[in-house]
Automatic annotation (TrEMBL):
SUPFAM superfamilies: PLP-dependent transferases. It comes from Rhizobium subbaraonis. One of its GO terms (molecular function) is pyridoxal phosphate binding. The keyword Transferase applies. Belongs to the class-III pyridoxal-phosphate-dependent aminotransferase family. The keyword Signal does not apply. It holds the Pfam family Aminotran_3. This is 4-aminobutyrate aminotransferase. Its cofactor is pyridoxal 5'-phosphate. PROSITE patterns: AA_TRANSFER_CLASS_3. Keywords: Aminotransferase, Pyridoxal phosphate, Transferase.
């Protein structure tokens, strides 16, 4: 264990820790991070997708330096600033049409989803919210309240109803998964409560922390039709898989739907803290001083986000997510044919998941093997975490700038890690202190 990692525990609380291996970082460039031991490791998490352009991207450095060298205040609460206005104009130009009214800025996916949950119930007067089992919408009281991830310790909202996210792999087919959730929804509306009590349905266009679940074809179109029929607002949480990562700018585009409200975070700031909500004017102007934190609308973070959006366009990074994501996916499919531990490979673009199972027929989750695999991969030079309600899905969210060569190199490291775990070369004791989630 490195010196920095050991020292950290003497000064920093564990409460925000979600640790999988003893990594201590002193720098980074592109898809690589530098450890305090001087080692370069390939980063296939990008801090859970936040470092969307990789580390130290020159466009972000330039934008941040410019904004900081003549700083237009620190907040948009009590004054307008140009980076926020430019960023809002840019986000509105990217659609969808239904949502293109006004933009709210926050620091994180959590404060953004919390704001939406408060705003939709206050503005519509409807008390209920729908979300999915396994959904991660944030770590604050109000965002945990509308989430369904079992690792969370916060209480759910009184008006929240969780619906199973269709899991094609577990159900045996996409059709079975889709039909089960749709009939569950219709039964809820017929027997539990009237649909016109529901203000909004929070969806993840790909359920990332719940296990990188890709919705079956036609599923979200059917959900959208139900929402329209009953006047329920459709909220697309694009925090992890949006902004080019899926191969489209918005991940909901894969489902052919148009949400009323879109939530952005993580990769929007390219590593700086900023989130955004885009929605219709009537909702987004619900009330002044309704949801604010002092340095919301920080011009330095907004300038970074604008640079992210411009760079994604200029460098065609959504196209790169499709192309390089396809190469990564093909390499993972090849691994799956050689490693019995791999039960399923799924995702879109550079949002990919690999589900590990101890038995292909029963699909029994291989959580211990997932923990050992990411630990071993780190030792061999690859940063990768796992997600899923059963803690057995390796998550791939590398920088959108990742190259084909880096994709192949990462998979070669994973190949070795899986082999070492299968051969029993990694002792359980390494996991002490790395419980993950
Ligand atoms: C990470 C995440 C959030 C919360 O974002 P924070 O920046 O951690 O507050 C919300 N929704 C989704 C889908 C996420 O992946």
């Amino acid at each position: 264990m490195s010196g920095l990692y050991a020292r950290e525990s003497q000064s920093i609380s564990r409460m925000a820790h979600l640790r999988f291996f003893p990594q201590a970082v002193v720098g980074g460039r592109g898809a690589y991070l530098t450890g305090d031991d001087g080692r370069q490791v390939l980063d296939f998490s990008a801090s859970w997708g936040s470092a969307s352009l990789g580390h130290s991207h020159p466009a972000i450095c330039a934008a941040v330096n410019r904004a900081l060298s003549d700083q237009a205040g620190a907040s948009y609460l009590s004054s307008a600033n140009e980076p926020c206005v430019l960023l809002a104009e840019k986000l509105l130009s990217l659609g969808p049409e239904r949502a293109s009214g006004r933009v709210w800025f926050g620091h994180s996916g959590s404060d953004a989803n919390e704001t939406v949950a408060r705003m939709v119930t206050a503005a519509t007067g409807r008390p209920r919210i729908l979300a999915f089992e396994g959904a991660y919408h944030g770590g604050t009281v109000g965002s945990m309240a509308v989430s369904g991830h079992p690792a969370q310790q916060g209480a759910r909202a009184a008006g929240l109803t969780l619906v199973p996210y269709p899991n094609s792999y577990a159900a045996g087919s996409a059709e079975a998964a889709r039909d089960a959730t749709l009939s569950h929804l219709e039964r809820l509306f017929a027997t539990e409560f009237a649909p016109d009590e529901v203000a909004a349905f929070f969806i993840e266009p790909i359920q990332s922390d719940g296990g990188m679940l890709v919705p079956p074809d036609g599923f979200f179109q059917a959900v959208e039709a139900l929402c329209r029929k009953h006047g329920i607002l459709l909220v697309s949480d694009e925090v992890k898989v949006g902004i080019g990562r899926s191969g489209r700018f918005h991940a909901y585009e894969h489902s052919g739907i148009e949400p009323d409200i879109v939530v952005f975070g993580k990769g929007l700031g390219g590593g700086l803290p900023i989130s955004a909500v885009v929605g219709p004017e009537a909702l987004m102007n619900h009330a002044a001083a309704f949801s604010l934190q002092t340095v919301h609308g920080n011009p330095v973070c907004a300038a970074a986000a604008l640079a992210v959006l411009e760079t994604i366009e200029r460098e065609r990074l959504a196209e790169n997510a499709t192309r390089t994501g396809g190469i990564l996916r093909a390499a993972l499919d090849r691994l799956a044919s050689r490693h019995a531990l791999i039960g399923d490979v799924r995702g879109h673009g550079l949002a990919l998941g690999v589900e590990l199972v101890s038995d292909a027929a029963s699909r029994a989750p291989a959580a211990r093997e997932a923990a050992l695999t990411v630990y071993r991969a780190f030792e061999l030079g690859l940063v990768l975490y796992y997600v899923g309600v059963r803690s057995n899905v390796l998550e791939f969210t590398p920088p959108l700038t990742v190259t084909a060569e880096e994709a192949e190199k990462g998979v070669a490291i994973l190949d070795q890690a899986l082999t070492d775990v299968r051969d029993g070369k990694i002792g359980e004791d390494v996991l002490c202190g790395f419980a993950g989630w």
